[in-house]
Amino acid sequence: MTDNSTDNTSGRGHKSSFRASLKSMDTEEHIDLYFYRPIGYAWAVLARRLGITPNAITIASIFLGVGAGICFFFDNIWINIAGALLLIWADSFDSADGQLARMTGQYSRVGRILDGVSGDLWFAAIYVAICLRENVTSEFFMAHHWVIWVMAVVTGLCHATQAAMADYYRQFHLYFLKGEQGSELDSADELSGKFRGMTWRRDFWQKIVLMFYLNYTSGQEKRTPAMQRLRAALRRRYGQAVPQEFRDRFRAMSLPLMKYTNILSFNVRTIALFAAILLLRMPWLYFAFELTVLNILLVYMMARHERMCRKLTAEIDN
């Protein structure tokens, strides 16, 4: 009886610890929740025992993701499957670094930036591999080398915008759900103040990192004018103490949009990537998917979110 009770207590503790390692149930995608997060949690528990930092896991994921890209160059199904497994492994590490940071309190802006850069490096390697592969296997692209490279560059720019906006909307939702401590929502004005307060001589590397992050955050804010007006209206009306009633109202309106942020993140992309490479054997179709389906979804998500912010701002001002 005592053993069963101990096991039950241990099981509840494990489940509670796992849930605490998640950002929130509002923002979790189903594949992440039932596949990547449990695997990531196991990696995070192991890393904590071994004293491995979240940033070290992120760096390891870069090598795995780039390795996946190299595998996708070859027109060989088994090497491509190995690449798919490496990419899945990389994403489990991408999940683990954030879960480990939440479990141990090892948050840092450098870690957040490195986490974003890691995904960019994975897909940069994948894009280059697809271009090189199509230029030696496709008659059309062999005759028109430049076409696939132009597609890759435009797709990469769209990918960066899609990922940045999905992350921004998710952080904005978490801000109202869990407050400043539960969100990584930043302000370009505050970051600019910190940037000006640093010196190149004393804070060279920190200033370099902040410069790129400031540009990233400024881009997010420029694409969301209605959201910025809502933030300004909230500061005028409530300061830092936004009433719980408003937080609940925002959450109810924002929650249906979280599924779009998840679609624009990793899992749907990789499903499309694996379908193009492993099933259809036409890697260039992945570029077409990002340029059409995901861009249409991005525009729709941004339009709905901006409309929601305008409505809430009008309510505050009135």
Describe the structure.
The chain is globular and about 60 Å long. It is mainly α and 318 residues long. It has 14 helices and no strands.
How much helicity do the residues have? over 70%
Bin the strand percentage.
Answer: under 5%
Largest sheet: none
From the alpha carbons, calculate the radius of gyration and give it in angstroms: 21 Å
Would you count the extended β strands for me? 0
Structural class: mainly alpha
Question: Low-confidence parts lasting 5 or more residues at pLDDT below 50?
Answer: none
The chain-level mean pLDDT equals 90
Shape designation: globular
User: H/E series, N to C?
Assistant: HHHHHHHHHHHHHH
- Cα-to-Cα separation, first versus last residue: 62 Å
Number of helices: 14
Which short descriptors sum up this protein?
318 residues; mainly alpha; 14 helices; 83% helix; globular
Tell me the layout of helices and strands.
Layout: H1 2-20, H2 30-50, H3 54-73, H4 77-104, H5 109-137, H6 139-143, H7 145-178, H8 188-197, H9 204-222, H10 225-238, H11 244-254, H12 258-263, H13 267-279, H14 284-317
Summarize the model shown.
This protein has 318 residues and is mainly alpha-helical.
